[in-house]
């Protein structure tokens, strides 16, 4: 389908939608510039009348900007939805058979679409700000509109004096690609696009990018407030409106990151949810700093300290978001990352974007630094501020430890830009490298989040602290020793982390119960901390105590050259041949497909091809649990790219289940494998394919071997025992018309696999005095058989047999203990964030309204 | 000394440890000759080598030998200096291995053989597709 452009249709290229879309892009850019200027004027003028007029004008332009962005999105969606492959974006990211819900994912497969998503959220949040906070609207929206100007410039696609600004999503295919076909026919339109990357065809990929980008946008709100605070010398006042936004950003960004992790666990086959890939790190770091900034803002709110730190961290978060955008989109990561975005030549623009905001905010911060009220008094060791502050510092260091090595490609690029040569590579074993530090930071975070909460809700001194902590400490020691024994935790650092996390859970639970009726309002922090601690335990146990079921632990001698032994973690399974591994017996049961309207999976060999790869014809009735879903000969719809390889498991306790790891053979992407998982309460059994026979390679059949056998005589084909059960004359054979002198004889040959018996029914035909050779194939077993002759004098039959390799897979099976703790922890963390955000928002509304009332009273008095 | 100074010093100390360890644990991109020299000098730190598969005049990769059980394989890689080297990898052949344009191997020399612990491949993905198949 994909390459089949045999008929060149006479078609007019529809340039109107693209031109309209591009017009909207230019408009949205222009409006964002005007809005920036107008909001700046509104903010800086002191004349009340002018102020009001500028505000009306600024708002109108911002709304117009938002409307233009909607126009861009609609135009692009129209192009994708209507399969207008004359446009590069539709051609490169979509295809005719793409389901509608994945068309949304097309938006963010390309760089331009993801920029579009980001600016869409920014505009939405901008409108929320306009409608909720009149006092801060001016300065905050100046920053917002400014950011929007930079973002819209990324998709502008305009050339100024040989300088290309931005990359438009509306370019035509003929302008994007230099293909000879366009010299012959400039109006050539491909019949189909190259399709959406199959690994993105997953429900998490529909919702993960929008969540992440909403998180990106949300970090801009506290940043804009902080800048406004500096600008207007309102050093303290910005904290209150910014606080709920900081929490909101932390919740959404955190959810976005974790969705990505869940997607990786479900779709990618590296055996886990986190890979320390630079792209993951680039977003993990700002999230940590963001959470730290929330904590310092809380400190300020309660004790009027840590204001300067709050400024620094809020600004750092936003700059780190810009830095991560630069890392991911500029191509600087090169081979260091698996997340490949094409380099659209935007590196320069991205650098200007980042440095503009870095320089403006740092300069402003330095300029105002002396003015920002600090606190002279030393924080008391028994004050909550002290402990929360240490917690925030730990989070920042945790991020710093990831940031330094992740930036290695950037150092190389800088050194090379100055003519030097640098060959530094990221650490060879990333998991080990990051874990050895992150583990200790996590211990710190767990202990502090457990202890800090006691300070948080009460005034403390040495004696009170001892009293408050004693019970939780004892309980957690008890619980963790139990867990250490039960889970078999055997390394000191792991024991320490486990104990610290258990302590955090116990201590925070104690706090939680002490809230009584106020629990729904105040419990956000405790619940989030419990969730975090559970995540730590889940991550620790599931990764440190991963059990590779398929490991060959006898220690294979690698080669004669060296004496090193290395275990092999993969296993080769032949079709229908049970293999023992660990406590399981596994059998590969063949290739399956997902057929619309039929539950479960259907054996691929009973489906016959049609001209359209998306449709197959059922070779026999498809029956599941006694119900006939599809009758023989009916046409069914399939997803041709997805092939599932059934692996049947039997545990030593006799439990049976099947897993269906998937392989997708995509002409342009090659082979992509996705795992399948059996979930238990206390563990996951995770299975993925490592290798399968290359489906594009032709089968190589052996030379013909001739067997002459009698009824019930055993013979061996491809290591299988075969027996001729019976031979009988048949009256008709498929569509061949048999005349009076013709003969058709069918043999029933049983092939005994280790598990199943398969029936082969080759037919011997004599038609018009000619012997017909009709080969029958037993798929998967690698057997092709022709009923070649009947020897009445010897009472035997002749079969010509060719063999090929039996079907096989190489797979890896892993047990991940306690991984459910990670998922439960994630849910709790999110619930905690939501409760806390709600609380801070209600506080903000109440205090804002109180202020307004006070002001009104004042004016009445005056 | 004020406690806040101690606190600041503590943070700086951890930051320094983090930076030093990042420098210490960073790997490097080297050629086979450099890697061999490092191994001979007793440094068995894991390094990165960038190169391509050895190909014949038709552009097909040559010298890939799969073990009998299909669970491991060897191949010949040509580094940026043009030196050919047999590399052993204790995993089945990755799906797109033969189509890869560029290969990065992470590992080290063990006598004559380069033992790869990890292979990163750059494949001609659809993202870089710049011609239309007609």
How would you describe this protein?
- The complex is a heterodimer of chains A (862) and B (134).
- Chain A has 21 helices and 32 strands.
- Chain A is α+β, with helices and mostly antiparallel strands.
- Chain A folds into four domains: 201 residues; 185 residues; 133 residues, no CATH class; 102 residues.
- Chain B starts with a helix and ends in a 12-residue tail after the last strand.
- About 4% of the residues of chain B have low confidence.
- Chain B has a single domain, classed as OB fold (Dihydrolipoamide Acetyltransferase, E2P).
- Chain B has two helices and seven strands, in the order H-E-H-E-E-E-E-E-E.
- The chains are: A alpha+beta (862), B alpha+beta (134).
- The interface between A and B is large, with 56 and 58 residues.
Summarize the structure.
The complex is a heterodimer of chains A (about 850) and B (about 130). Chain A is an alpha+beta fold.
What secondary-structure arrangement, pairings included, does this model have?
The complex is a heterodimer of chains A (862) and B (134).
Chain A: H1 16-44, H2 48-81, H3 88-93, H4 100-109, H5 111-132, H6 137-154, E1 158-160, E2 163-165, H7 173-176, H8 181-184, H9 203-231, H10 239-267, H11 278-303, H12 307-329, H13 347-368, H14 384-406, H15 408-417, E3 424-425, H16 430-457, H17 462-487, H18 492-514, H19 519-522, H20 524-544, E4 547-548, E5 552-557, E6 565-568, E7 571-574, E8 579-581, E9 584-593, E10 602-603, E11 607-609, E12 615-618, E13 622-624, E14 627-630, E15 635-637, E16 642-651, E17 656-659, E18 662-666, E19 670-674, E20 676-679, E21 683-691, E22 705-709, E23 714-717, E24 720-729, E25 743-752, E26 757-760, E27 763-767, E28 770-774, E29 776-778, E30 783-791, E31 796-803, E32 808-817, H21 819-861
Antiparallel strand pairs in A: 1-2, 4-32, 5-6, 7-32, 8-9, 9-10, 9-16, 11-12, 12-15, 13-14, 16-17, 16-18, 18-19, 20-21, 21-32, 22-31, 23-24, 24-25, 25-26, 25-27, 27-28, 29-30, 30-31
Helix pairs in contact in A: 1-2, 1-6, 2-4, 2-5, 4-5, 4-9, 5-6, 5-9, 6-9, 9-10, 9-12, 10-11, 10-21, 11-12, 11-14, 12-13, 14-16, 16-18, 16-20, 17-18, 18-20, 20-21
Chain B: H1 3-25, E1 27-30, H2 32-40, E2 47-53, E3 65-66, E4 73-79, E5 84-89, E6 102-110, E7 113-122
Parallel strand pairs in B: 1-2, 5-7
Antiparallel strand pairs in B: 2-4, 2-6, 3-4, 4-5, 6-7
